[in-house]
Amino acid sequence: MSTLSAPGKEEGARMDADLYDVARAHHPFRPGRLLLWVVVLAVAANFAYIVANNPNFGWPVVAAYFFDPTVIHGLYVTLGLTVVAMAIGIALGLLLAIARMSSDRLASSVSSLFIWFFRGTPLLVQLIFWYNLSTLFPEISIGIPFGPTFASWNTNDLISPVTAAIVGLALNEAAYMAEIIRGGLLSVDKGQAETAEAFGMTRARALRRIIIPQAMRSIVPPTGNQLISMIKATSLVSVIAMADLLYSVQSIYNRTFEVMPMLLVAVLWYLFITSILNVGQSAIERHYNRGERDAAVRKDDAAEKAVQQEDAR
Amino acid sequence: MTTSSIDQAPLVRARNVHKAFHHVEVLKGIDLDVKAGEVVVILGPSGSGKSTFLRCINRLETIDKGSIFVDGEQIGYQLRNGKLQPLSNRAIATQRSKIGMVFQQFNLYPHMTVLQNVIEAPIGVHGRSRDEAITEARELLAKVGMSHKVNAYPRQLSGGQQQRVAIARALAIRPTLMLFDEPTSALDPELVGEVLTTMRSLADQGLTMIVVTHEIGFAREAADRVVFMDGGRVVEEGSPEAVLENPRHPRTRSFLSRFI
After folding, report:
1. H-state helical runs in chain B
2. Which single residue of A4, A121, B80, B198 has CA 20 to 30 Å from B252?
3. Does A214 touch chain B (CB under 8 A)?
4. How many domains does chain B have?
């Protein structure tokens, strides 16, 4: 009681309660903070002014080529490659993750070997490797190992730049996705798999209905990361003569020598795509966070107490 | 049909069940019969193997020796041309689908609402229509007093409420046998009562139940038979009066003395 009466005994208990009511609390005005805002905004405005007015950036050129058919075609190639490679990568990654976690030694060994190889070598090397597969294996055939062959193809007919790009990007992606998905599956409480089992679910159904939906919460954020990396990684395919976004702006500036403006075209497109993906990722995360108690409310003791009090009534 | 002989055969028959984890013997030859409609409560100190034995009944744990039969079928194995073979995963899943289980940690599916939790197995495992499953789920949730929370997510419920939903979920598969693995051990003391009341009403309705618990009161009031386990063996079994009031074995006596 003695500590409470510090502001003056004559004010009385009611006044004390008002004085110490945290609802009235607010931060004091901090001039240093305001100054910092002004400085940062001034620097940013100045930088924007310089960029906008520096003729070397060639904004009119950027504007002229932004929707150029070559650029738009390159954009489609980049997006197409990203979607296809990512889709194959996720599907194959899921299989690899399940195989790696399986109690079957054959499945887990094969999966580990795959992941070891494709994570352990540079993507650029893998792309060049697939593109030049014919120098290693001029013919690809299907048959029994060490036995007769049933069908064979010329490797150069089979592996075009497109297939080399897709195979290279997808297999590399699958190795990374396998580890991301495996981490997600491991993050789910073991009791969940056990419960699904106890209720007579098959392993496939338990994965699909119980485990994977819960694992998604920790799979989605790194997958968004991978998707964004993939969009930029597709620019590597320019080395095997795939006309992606970067390759198409390069093909233009090799002709016009307007290197910086053309790179800006590509940069702006990459930023535009990744911005859209960020929005999509947030939406997906919100979906898989359902059931996580009110998403807006911080999961702390206060919230827990509130729920329990409500139950007690 | 030789119904008379079937009626007399126990619903659960465990014979000489042995189980070791990494060379530590947890079960050292358990024999137990449970008749249809019977409520058996298994008591015993921690580490006595009671939960492990319960988990062996629906093959969440494999056993090293002995046999367990539920409803006339051997769990996990089949005799083919005089040779005993392990069942396929699918066949084991089918056996499990008739046995309801309630866990200590509730284990509700956190990404599904209460109603979705209850209808998941009836639709997905038993192939019932969605409408039928929902109607039955609502009845069961009413029975456990959870009608007002059908659309809530498990994390929005108290422990006692979650466990009552878990009981409804297990009942929804129309089980021939219900296993309760320490259903009240993870609950705050004031929430234990609501779960035990629900379980008692199930016992009164003639459901066959095997309950591993520390609730002596529940054993006294609801059990047809009490089994006391210690050190991986059944030490003593009999009516609640016999085992709880007049224990013959010194280890039963010393265990029970802690609850008085």
Report:
1. 3-8, 50-57, 89-96, 114-124, 130-143, 159-171, 189-204, 216-222, 240, 250-257
2. B198
3. yes
4. 1
pLDDT, position A261: 93
Domain around A242: 75-140+152-290
- On whether residue B131 sits in a domain, the answer given is yes
From the CA of B170, how many Å to the nearest CA of chain A? 8
Number of domains in chain A: 1
Share of chain A above pLDDT 70, in %: 88
Assess contact for B195 and B184: CB atoms under 8 A: yes
Q: Is A202 on the interface with B (CB under 8 A)?
A: yes
Q: Kindly report the nearest CA distance between residue B101 and chain A, in angstroms.
A: 7
The percentage of residues in chain B with a pLDDT greater than 70, rounded to a whole number, is: 97
Enumerate the residues of chain A whose CB falls inside 8 A of the CB of residue B93. Answer: 197, 200-202
The pLDDT value given to residue A115: 96
Contacts of B194 in chain A (CB under 8 A): none
The answer for residues whose C-beta is within 8 angstroms of residue B85's C-beta and 6 or more apart is B77, B78, B79
Chain A stretch 231-290, residues whose beta carbon is closer than 8 A to a beta carbon of chain B: 288, 290
CATH number of the domain that residue A131 is part of = 1.10.3720.10
The pLDDT, as a whole number, for residue A230 is 93
Interface-testing mutation among A189, A195, A310, with chain B (most B C-beta atoms within 10 A): A195
A236 in a domain, yes or no? yes
Give domain status of residue B217, yes or no.
Answer: no
- B124–A213: do the CB atoms touch at under 8 Å? no
Closest listed residue to residue A164, CA positions, set A154, A151, A175, A155 = A155
The whole-number average pLDDT for the span A205-221 is 94
Q: What is the pLDDT of residues B123-143, one digit of tens each?
A: 999 999 999 999 999 999 999
The reply to whether A42 falls in a domain is no
Query: What number is the average pLDDT over the span A197-214?
Result: 94
Mean pLDDT on A75-83: 94
Within a domain: B134? yes
Q: Is residue A100 part of a domain?
A: yes
**Residue B138 counted as domain residue:** yes
Does residue A269 belong to any structural domain of this protein? Answer: yes
Interface of A with B in 172-201 (CB under 8 A): 189, 191-192, 194-195, 197-201
**CB A200 to CB B121 under 8 A?**
yes
Q: Closest residue of B to A308, CA-based? A: B158
What would the pLDDT profile of B181-238 be if each residue is shown by its tens digit?
A: 999 999 998 899 999 999 999 999 999 999 999 999 999 999 999 999 999 999 999 9
pLDDT band per the 50, 70, 90 thresholds, residue B2: very low
What DSSP state is assigned to residue A260? Answer: H
Cβ atoms of residues A182 and A101 within 8 Å? yes
Contact at CB, A291 and B107, closer than 8 angstroms? no
- Cα radius of gyration (chain B): 19
Q: Which residues contact A271 (CB under 8 A, 6 or more apart)?
A: none
